[in-house]
Amino acid sequence: MTAKKVEKKFQTETQKMLDLMINSIYTNQEIFLRELIANASDAIGKVKFQSLTDSDILGEDSDFEIWLDLDEVNNVLTIEDNGVGMTYDEVVENIGTIAQSGSQEFLQKLQEKQAQAKDNALDLIGQFGVGFYSSFMVADKVTLITRAPKQDTGVKWESIGDGTYTIEEVDKPKRGTTIKLKLREEFTSDGDEIDLTNRQNIKQLVKKHSNYVEYPIKMKVYEENNEGEVIEKIETLNDMKPLWIKNKENIEIEKYNEFYKEVFNDWTEPLEVIHSKVEGLVKYSTLLFIPQQAPSNIYSEDFDLGLRLYSKNNFVMDNCSKILPDYLRFIRGLIDSPDFTLNLSRQVLQDDKQLKIISKTLEKKILKQLKSMLADNREQYKEFWSEFGQLIKSGVDMTHGKKQDKLVDLLLFPSSYADGEMTTLAEYVERMKEGQDVIYYITGEDEITVENMPQMELLQEKDLEVLYFFDEIDEFVINKLREYNDMEFKSVLRGDLDLDEADEDVEAEEDEVEELLEAVEENLADKVSEVRLSKRLKSSAVCLVSGDVGLSMSMEKVLEKMNQNMGQAQRILEINPQHEVFSKLKDIYLTEGNSDQLAEYSELLYSLASLVEGFTPDDPVTFSNKITDLMVEAI
Ligand SMILES: Nc1ncnc2c1ncn2[C@@H]1O[C@H](COP(=O)(O)OP(=O)(O)OP(=O)(O)O)[C@@H](O)[C@H]1O
After folding, report:
1. What integer is the mean pLDDT of 130-149?
2. What are phi and psi of 52, to 5 degrees?
3. Per the database entry, which stretches of residues form a coiled coil (predicted)?
């Protein structure tokens, strides 16, 4: 060991890294502070750990702290800790070289990318972690003075990032490391970049990136008192409340609520908290929240909330929307893993294998939590459902196979039995009548509309439960599912219901009036594919239904709204053979055949049936005139 000041050359690799820091990165330079604070916190962690087996190591200096100081006159920012420090050899080893095993790979990639854009360079750094060197992004001279415990002297290391550094032994009264950054002009009050000589800016950077570092980060601040005098105060800049690393058994719900509101800027308390620690192949802690209210833009395409990532309490990244599947985009929260590098970039994130494992586990955990909420706290689940049910439905629509199976039991629908409440599919199946082998559903605007729809009459008479689909997405979801527990879904508005014992009578009558039905069909040839006698109508005169397969009328409306023209749904006009209007039609046909009057009534009946389905008649004026003419005749 030498006491004299000597000049040493950086490893070629290190110098290349420094050149990159100094010349190629023009964004996110502020992260240097997080890197240095993280190193300081690691160093304190190390000495704390050593003190467990060696109680002398701390001496008098046992209050662990990180200090920030600003010299506004000379533009120097200081970061100081009372951590483990470094010996002379450790400084040479740790600071002069790149010791990481991946350094060769790093350099190879660096050479490949050097000519490329600045963001790429930052991504590259993210894969390797070059913490200390990031100080050269904002400083043109870096001085590190450090002393390991039980050493008589300290070590001073200094560099202007020009390929060499100096190292010498110096006096340093206390254990730990002090790093002095002579700020580049751009980062002072004279520059265009963030002014790092401004205490307020430093405070904000600490809040943003290092708020949950375990040890206090202190700085002198100057404030005016009531008498207008400027007084000096020492302020702890970070909150140090990384709730997620604590044991959940010891955390009261109020603490979670407080934390959620503060960190995620929500006025309302979360509906549910999911807190877990995983110590497996991939280590991480996670603290997730289901909010009470959906943000107003949650269904818009550019909604991008996502999770926060931390590495050992250090903030790494915000708004990571790719971790959870899109249908869980309402989840707020964070993941902290020592395996994340501090500079993890979004690009790297997408391919991160560990993160993929974490993502899968989190998705499972959230679904499990929702399932037990549904089973154990229906009221709470209903609150959840009214805010985020659409998203769960979209999950069923977008996924298939096993994933879909996991989601299907989370679905809730209003139903003719539920009396304003909602039912799960399992509950529906449980209540099914003897001999019933399909799950009935009807699409429509709201409860009043669907309950009054003519197509419901037979099911109401037979007291069969019908699920109500009021959301546009519902029918798409059911189309994807096709069946539940081997029971097919059957629309009340489609095909034949095959329900009534009187079906045969209707069929017999249909033969008798075949010619009349053909005549009406002819009159409506450009509108309907078929005209038939209805087996489902009890009191209404007519209704429209679609075929068993293909587009339904409600899907046609939805797609039209979305400007996706997929053509028209098949329309079948059903006429109630018991209705008086049908007897009148028969009379007209008997006396006049397919007359103008029959043609006019065919049109009228079709328009009436369309109205019930929510379609405007093709020619509203003629329709309205015909109705008033009929009224005049009748009155
Ligand atoms: N404040 C400090 N006190 C003691 N040792 C330090 C301090 N800062 C850095 N070191 C030492 O220098 C080494 C290199 O630091 P550097 O920030 O370049 O990388 P790292 O912290 O190991 O990795 P990363 O920042 O990617 O997590 C550290 O591993 C540590 O041994």
Report:
1. 91
2. -65, -35
3. 499-530
